[in-house]
Specification:
Two copies of one chain form a homodimer.
Chain A: H1 9-30, H2 33-36, H3 39-46, H4 50-56, H5 60-81, H6 89-106, H7 108-120, H8 127-140, H9 154-174, H10 180-194
Chain B binds a DNA duplex (30 and 30 nucleotides) through helix 1 and helix 4.
DNA sequence: ATCGCCAATGAAACGTGTTCTAGTTGTGGT
DNA sequence: ACCACAACTAGAACACGTTTCATTGGCGAT
């Protein structure tokens, strides 16, 4: 995926630095959440100047997105390793979303960050499409990550909607209005209707 | 709704002040969005001290929510005045959501504020349930706003999901990833599946 | 009319994201 | 080996939400 072969020494240094920054940021976010992930603190602990940090990540949000993106990589690998086994498309999609939900809730601070970044970001890399694609593959039981889906088909479209619903539900959990049980139920009902006949 | 009879002179003054603050905030938000609605500016233009502003609205978010709540009142009255006429539940729901969408896009800055507040707010008054209830009434063609819906029924639940999808779509529009046409199409497809058989 | 008290005032100060400036360093091309 | 230049550093400064506090003033009970 993203890992370019670092052509020169300069680039190698830069990608090292970048990685160090993201790791530092993740560590800070893990305990204390987004608010603990303060730009000065990240810069200091990563051993770079504040200005440098801002050269790599023009805003805090960009940094959050970078952290969250790594989390998403983890989820994708976990799915690959242990694909959902439910018999229906809806079941598989719900399975994946619940796994993601529980993952997020294990670190609510990070979950908060994810959702906020999914929502607020004008950032370059958009996370929602990635999740939608992931759901799409899972629902269709395509292991092949390369095959590009027909993004205009109604089925793909409603998978996008399901992604939206999930984000919304995670928000509700984070706000303390629901627990994971309720989310499971709601996602199941919603997915059943949205993905009916996709098997 | 909320208008208590102001019992004393003191209370009258307070509700006047409060109203003045919200109006000022709305005016500022209208041109320039949330960022133009700065606490110092609101306080100054409303003719109150900063501390007073914070007595009435403990955080900027609370102020935004107050502004947005007024907007929502407007929408509800507009629906009451001119109810959606589509023959299906899904059609009516989509009609209302599109009206809301277009209203928001007329003032994108304010739309941004609404959605952000729907999302971020830990604030007391929660807006999403209000929208869900509104959709529910419209879908069922109940003009009676008093009748409390069965919040556990699957049908009510998927209306909640539809509300989530709408918020998500508005976000995409605000981010410039979609136009209203696309949103209409997506909402229609989604609502058709979610609300099938609700007529 | 007087008094007590709560709410409003004004102004300063804090915290954190973001920007700016001036000086330094290390890398790649020649 | 040397130069040019982009990237890095240190730190100050700015913007805006939020907090604090001493002072003032008007409402309501007496």
């Amino acid at each position: 995926m993203g890992a370019q072969a670092p052509a020169s020494l300069r680039m190698r240094n830069q990608s090292q630095r970048r990685k160090r920054i993201v790791q530092t940021a993740a560590a800070l976010a893990l305990r204390g959440g987004v608010e603990a992930m303060q730009m000065r603190a990240v810069a200091e602990r990563a051993g770079v100047a504040l200005g440098t940090l801002y050269r790599y990540f023009p805003s805090k949000m960009d940094l959050v997105v970078a952290v969250v993106t790594e989390e998403l990589d983890l989820l994708e690998r976990s799915i690959e390793r242990r694909p959902p086994a439910a018999p229906t498309a809806a079941g598989r999609a719900v399975d994946v979303l619940l796994r993601a939900t529980r993952g997020l809730m294990r670190e609510p601070e990070l979950g908060d960050a994810l959702v906020r970044s999914l929502i607020m970001t004008e950032a370059t890399t958009d996370l929602a499409p990635r999740i939608t694609d992931l759901l799409w593959r899972v629902a269709r039981q395509e292991t092949d990550a390369e095959r590009v889906p027909d993004r205009e088909s109604p089925d793909y479209l409603v998978v996008g909607s399901l992604c939206g619903v999930w984000i919304f539900e995670v928000l509700e959990v984070l706000k303390g209005h629901r627990d994971v049980e309720q989310v499971q139920h709601r996602l199941q009902v919603t997915a059943d209707r949205l993905l009916a006949g996709m098997d």
